[in-house]
Amino acid sequence: MSVSDPIIEQRPLLVDPAHPPLTVLDPVLARVYAARGIDDPALLGRRLQELLPDSQMKGVPAAVARLLTALEQRQKILIVGDFDCDGATSTSVALLGLRMLGAAEVEYLVPNRFEYGYGLSPEIVEVASRSRPDLVITVDNGISSIEGVARANALGIDVIVTDHHLAGAELPEACAIVNPNQPGCDFIAKSTCGVGVIFYVLIALRRALNERGWFNGQAPNLASLLDLVALGTVADVVPLERNNRALVWQGLQRIRAGQARPGLLALIEVSGRRRDRIVASDLGFAIAPRLNAAGRLEDMSIGIECLLEENYDRALSMARELDELNRERRGIEQEMQQQALELLGQLSLNDRELPFGLCLYDEYWHQGVIGILASRIKERVYRPVIAFAPGDAGEIKGSARSINGFHIRDGLDAVAAKHPGLLKKFGGHAMAAGLTIAAEDLAAFSDAFDAEVRRQLDADDLTQRILTDGELPEAAFSMELAEALRNAGPWGHQFPEPLFEGRFHLLQQRIVGQRHLKLVVMPEGGTLALDAIAFNVDTLVWPDESVQKVRLVYRLDVNEFRGQRSLQLMVDWIGVE
């Protein structure tokens, strides 16, 4: 199997970096902002006062009305969450926020993915009913739970759905649905994730309670929950448009100041990050995987309890348990990835002969890790990938990851429409989705999925394009610029961290930490020796002492080691010149 090198292109400038007020910035930073459509740093959207009003979000008034009744009548509320990081933070924010606002009795339930699957299923409603709740609130799920909500209604349990996933043709008959992606919702920040949606509901509820004179004194400060809102938003890889940037930025400031949940601070400690220098990418690549490991391998309740814990020492013990689970998850993932690559190698296909939509299955793969596996294989072959693992009797469950240009949830919907009964259930986003099919239908589904991808994409779409912010002059390789770029975000999906490219002389190369390539390079035509590191390289290819020149796509960063700080290039892609 061979994979073509990506096409490396410079991001087009969306505004003129030579116009004030960008001219007061470092020219590189001005160019970075201009390539992201920012012509004034004041438009980054970092202030809470700039958040969109909750009045634009459909379903909020109905949800608040039902919650007011629940609080005033001291009814029992049950939060039903999801088993990923967005679900864990959504559950924690809902629970903590409602308690802050005076709810008498609030509990949570997160379906074990291996027993009940995703969402408010009829089966999980039966489990929930044992605690006799008056009201169920779904967080980060529920928009597709038609049967589950119907079962709750039959049992006399009201349901408020708070979700952000795409709605299907039919909506559940809940007493309120709050979802920016439901039909008729005018809230323009459609990328708001589950934790953002429930945070908005809490804001509206606090205002309604305050108007009723509910609080004796000052109303509680819900901004204290923004550390969790930031974590869930970054972890769910939703676009960091202006509204989300404000939520993430404010959450990061609270974390840096030490005003975060003990469990989150403990997770930062076990991940080896510095709390006072935390950035969005740390939340996405260091904290979220440790929290997600609980839902992937065991029960997300461990992660939620860590976020809810008030005592730091107990939270640290839980964080260490999550860290160990994450190590186990990585080992399983690496073994599965190697098996998948061997499977592709056995097919004797190059990248032009692979299916456009690739489906992979192994009877020994772990359900909790197939999403990461699909993502890793997608990065290797650059095409939509679905990895399947055994599910319930006679079924297999798939986790899908896509590329730019192919909306994976809509693609599955198209397959379902053309082949009725082929998909038992599915749901998701543009870039990620989950599905269940009969094991015996794998071949038929694989063909149908490939055909749908081929209908929408051509061969050129399967060539990866890396957009960079161009080359840097040697004078720009400085700690000052690295720090300025680090703090110029928050960076994330569709507001990407600055990425540069260039040609370098390769002075030194060695493997560290088993799979990481440590480099010393010098810009072509320059005299400055620079440290660089590329993570998780193919050790069958690197190091290669015959290589003297390389082309790098990299980020500027500050490396801190034993109290010493130095400039370092974080290599995203390396090619031989």
From TrEMBL:
Residues 468-571 form the RecJ OB domain. Residues 76-233 form the DDH domain. Keywords: Coiled coil, Exonuclease, Hydrolase, Nuclease. GO terms for molecular function: exonuclease activity. Residues 308-342 form a coiled coil. It comes from the Bacteria. Residues 360-453 form the DHHA1 domain. PANTHER family: SINGLE-STRANDED-DNA-SPECIFIC EXONUCLEASE RECJ. NCBIfam families: recJ. This is Single-stranded-DNA-specific exonuclease RecJ. The gene is recJ.
